[in-house]
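Look over this today:
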Amino acid sequence: MYTKICSALSRSCMWLGVMGLVLLIAAVSWQVFGRYVLNNTPTWAESLSLLLVLYVTMFGVAVGVRNSGHIGLESFLVLAPDWLRTKMEYLIHALVLLFGACMAYSCASLAESVWEYRLPTLGISEGWKYIPAVIAGSLIVLFSIEHIIALAQGREVEAN
């Protein structure tokens, strides 16, 4: 059941990332069109593009952790004996979990500290820049737990 939930979350992140990329392309295209054709650069387009890059990147990072696309010291794992390899895999997933938890907590604190400030070109809170890292960090924790459970059960987490 937990794997199905994580799989659905991962798939949702991929779709949100794809939609973010489409919006990013549209915003940058509008910015270029405004600058070179209309001779009137839309100031909001650059800010929106930077914000969308954060969301697309963070959702991609979370999916990468679930699909084991992160750097996991593969060369050391291949060379290690079986008894050590499993312990190293536990350590890697635990460290990734710790990183995700620290990222979620720290970015939540940052978002809270700047929530009153506004991005002038978009009119939204400055805290929205940190929300994708909070979401991604939380998902990294969930996906790392999934990997640890799968490792304890002697199976692999299947990528989407």
The chain has a mean pLDDT of 91.
